[in-house]
Design goal:
Blueprint: E1 6-11, H1 14-26, E2 31-33, E3 41-44, E4 50-55, H2 57-66, E5 71-75, H3 76-82, E6 90-95, E7 101-108, H4 117-131, E8 135-139, H5 142-151, E9 157-161, H6 169-172, E10 177-182, H7 186-190, E11 193-204, E12 206-211, H8 218-233
C-alpha cells in the first residue's frame, strides 16, 4: 500500500552498524531500536514514514533484490555479487566512504610463474595435464568470479563455494586458489597467499542502495529525497 512506510535496512551489528548510526545521526536522522534492545526493528525519531529493519549485511542485499525493503546500507561487494544478467534489481544511490575492502584473486606464494591473470590459463592447462582436473577456486563471490574470469578469458577452472574461512581452503586441500575480500592483506599473507597483480575484481565500500523491484509511490520517493538531502548536508 502507498501509505505504508519506507523500509530502511541497516546492519544489525559490528562496525558497519556503528558507522551507519554515526552517519545518520550526523544527518539529523538518529536511528533507534523499538521494543527490546536486541530486537530487529527501529525508527527515526519524528519520521513516521520510515521504518528501520536491522539485518545482516548479506540479508540486506538479498532483501533489496527481492523488493522486501526499499533502501539498505550494505557492502558494494554484496550488491554486485547479487546482480544478475538482464534488468537490474538494485541501484547504488550513494557511496558512504567507510567499510572499504577489495575483492581479489589470490594464489599460493609458491606459484612463482603466476603473477597476472593471463598466466592462469597456462597454469590451468598444466594442472589439468598433471592431475586430470580443473583448478578449483574457492569463493563466496560466484557471480563476480565468473564474470571477471570470463572477461579475462580464463576457462580452466571450477568454483568451489566457500561459506567459511576462504583463505584456509588451500591449506585444507579443497581448492588451489581463492577469490575473497580483503582490507589489509594480513590474513592472506598469514596463509602464504599473494594477490595476482591484475586480480582486483572490485574496490568495495559501504553503500546506500535502492531496491528497483520495491514499490516507489510519491511519498516513498519523497522520503528517499529527504534522506539523501540530509546525508549531503551532514557530510555523509
Amino acid at each position: 500500500m502507498s501509505d505504508e512506510p519506507l523500509i530502511l535496512a541497516v546492519p544489525s551489528k559490528g562496525r558497519l552498524m556503528e558507522r551507519a548510526s554515526e552517519l545518520f545521526k550526523a544527518a539529523g536522522l538518529p536511528l533507534r531500536k523499538t521494543g527490546h534492545e536486541r530486537g530487529y526493528r527501529g525508527e527515526i525519531a519524528g519520521r513516521n514514514g520510515i521504518e528501520i529493519a536491522f539485518l545482516s549485511a548479506a540479508e540486506i542485499a538479498y532483501q533489496l533484490s527481492s523488493g522486501r525493503v526499499h533502501l539498505g546500507i550494505t557492502g558494494e561487494d554484496l550488491i554486485r555479487e547479487g546482480g544478475r544478467e538482464g534488468a537490474p534489481r538494485t541501484e547504488v544511490v550513494r557511496s558512504l566512504g567507510f567499510g572499504e575492502a577489495d575483492v581479489v584473486v589470490a594464489v599460493p606464494e609458491c606459484w612463482l610463474d603466476v603473477s597476472h591473470m593471463s598466466d592462469l590459463e597456462d597454469a590451468a592447462a598444466i594442472f589439468f595435464r598433471e592431475h586430470g582436473r580443473r583448478l578449483r577456486v574457492a569463493t563466496k563471490y560466484m557471480n563476480l568470479t565468473r564474470r571477471f574470469f570470463s572477461d579475462k578469458g580464463i576457462t580452466g577452472y571450477r568454483i568451489v563455494e566457500s561459506l567459511g574461512a576462504t583463505e584456509g581452503t588451500i591449506a585444507a586441500g579443497t581448492a588451489e586458489m581463492i577469490v575473497d575480500i580483503t582490507s589489509t592483506g594480513t590474513t592472506l599473507q598469514a596463509n602464504h597467499l599473494k594477490v595476482i597483480e591484475d586480480g582486483l575484481i572490485l574496490k568495495s565500500q559501504a553503500v546506500l542502495a535502492k531496491s528497483i523491484t520495491a514499490s516507489w509511490p510519491p511519498a516513498r520517493s519523497r522520503e528517499l529525497d529527504e534522506i539523501l538531502s540530509r546525508l549531503e548536508a551532514g557530510g555523509g
